Amino acid sequence: MTVKETDIVEDALLQEGLKKYRKLLRRINDEIWEHPEIRFVEHRAHDLLTKVLEEHQFKVTRNYILETGFRAEFSPESGKYASLGPNVCFICEYDALPIVGHACGHNLIAESGIAMALLTQHVMTECPSRYPGKITVIGSPGEEGGGGKIIMIEAFNDVDVAMMLHPSNKGILHTESICSSRIFAAYSGKRPEETAHYFPSLDRMLPGSESDAAVAAYNAIQVLRAEMPHQWRIGAVIKKIDHSLGLEITYRTLHGADMSVLCARIVKCLEAGGAAAGCQLDWRFTDPYLNMWPNICLGSTVYSYLKRPEILFEYGLNKEFNALLSTDMGNVSHLVPSIHPMYYIDTPTSLHHPDFAKQANTPEAENRMLDCAQAAAHTALKLLRDPNELLRVPVRHNGQLRRKKRPQKYTLRRIRARGIAQESTHRYNK
Fold it and tell me: Which InterPro entries does the entry mention (predicted)?
């Protein structure tokens, strides 16, 4: 059978599988959309997705690494051919945003992960010996601010390629993203209420107060903004941190290597605020979301199998676009060849807006997602049946790594070498 004939047969089987599972997939979408759960408490979604996979002969590990994480594996004929081919991974996200629900479309991401898995499985079972290897579904909770995939990064150690599909108000095939992390800084010193009775008529913060330290640090960060490269970003807000007054700071860079540099400069601003006001500083930071490195080979293969690519992806094969967003899928892409295409769901509304949540539950949005899921499943089948295609993917991926500044391990090692490990505490005594 020629490659073209194989593609035709696979396409027919994928259409058959889509017809078979269409109602089930819609039920998954509706259930998750109607019952939004924020990061790390997605118990209903976790139970729903794992139950569906168990019912379809996947070997499921519930509460995998995280309480609402899971891992599901399938290889036909009881894993007879599992070790003879690649491990293709599909990723589900299912956490919602506070207040606005699924305004990032994670209901569609969860459905697409299951759709890719079931469609690929449907074809694999028709001729097991033709598709050696296995497929894995990783349930990744807490993407919205929790960095679930960073915590679960070891889950991808035995994965050969990883795929996730994301809805968007722009169609971006080769999605790039930026690095992001947060610093939580708290000051301890004289509190205004401790000295207010001496100056009852003064409605201001006295020297040595936590607020003075926070304001001084905030002003120093404002100066840093003016001096730093224009590709870097800092957002800071003064608020209560750990029952003290302090700052929550979000900082972003294009490349992982720059994160440690910017973090160190922000910490100096925080220390200056504490020194000026005579306050003690306690701070910690979250593990960074690294920039997404889309695998061009995988993304282009998915694009070639789409029925209406020009509608789904405005920024197609030869168009680069950095979405200027951050995702923990970036950390996965530094470990294994990965794709994170963002398909257009026919809305001008940006992500995290209430209107986007409404659009993410429409039949048209689901139809577009299923078009992408079918193309991604076709890509997975091509990798499983053609070892030469699999060999080309890592080579191109490594080529991307060489063109970038730093791989993930170097970035994290550099951060720790500078004494800025996660949960580090620095004190500036009065």
Answer: Peptidase_M20/M20A_hydrolases, Xaa-Arg_dipeptidase
Whether 164 and 226 map to the same domain: the answer is no
Query: Pairing state of beta strands 179-188 and 244-253?
Result: antiparallel
Asked whether the beta carbons of 110 and 44 are under 8 A apart, the reply is no
Number of folded domains that form the chain: 2
| 21 and 159 fall within a common domain | yes
Is the same domain home to 158 and 80? yes
Residues 6+ apart with CB under 8 A from 242: 184, 186, 282
Q: What is the pLDDT of residues 105-126, one digit of tens each?
A: 999 999 999 999 999 999 999 9
Torsion (CA) 204, 207, 212, 217 in degrees, nearest 10: 160
pLDDT at 403 over 80: no
Q: Where are the beta strands (DSSP E) in 297-404?
A: 321-322, 338-339, 342-344
Are 327 and 251 part of one and the same domain? no
Statement to judge: residues 262 and 161 lie in one domain: no
Phi and psi for 424 in degrees, rounded to 5?
-65, 150
Q: What share of the chain is helix, strand, coil (3-state, %, to 5)?
A: 45, 20, 35
Angle between helix axes 408-417 and 256-277 (nearest 10 degrees) is 20
Q: Are residues 167 and 229 in the same domain?
A: no
Residues 156-184: pLDDT tens digits? Answer: 999 999 999 999 999 999 999 999 999 99
Q: Is residue 425 part of a domain?
A: no
Task: Show the tokens assigned to 281.
Answer: 């500083």
Torsion of CA 249, 288, 232, 164, to 10 degrees: -120
Which CATH number characterizes residue 169's domain? 3.40.630.10
Cβ neighbours of residue 194 closer than 8 Å, sequence gap 6 or more: none
DSSP for 165-177? -EEESS-BSSEE-
263 and 312 share one domain: no
Instruction: Tell me which amino acid residue 228 is.
Output: M
Quick check: 110 and 61 in contact, CB under 8 A? no
DSSP output for 113-170: HHHHHHHHHHHHTTSGGGS-SEEEEEE---TTTS-HHHHTGGGGTT-SEEE--EEESS
Cα–Cα nearest to 293, from 176, 402, 159, 181? 176
The boundaries of the domain holding residue 45 are 3-177+290-385
Q: What is the pLDDT of residue 416?
A: 32
Would you call 130 exposed, middle or buried from its count of C-beta atoms within 10 A (0-12, 13-18, 19+)? middle
Residue 400 pLDDT exceeds 70: no
Q: What is the mean predicted confidence (pLDDT) over 350-370?
A: 98
- The CATH number covering residue 283 comes to 3.30.70.600
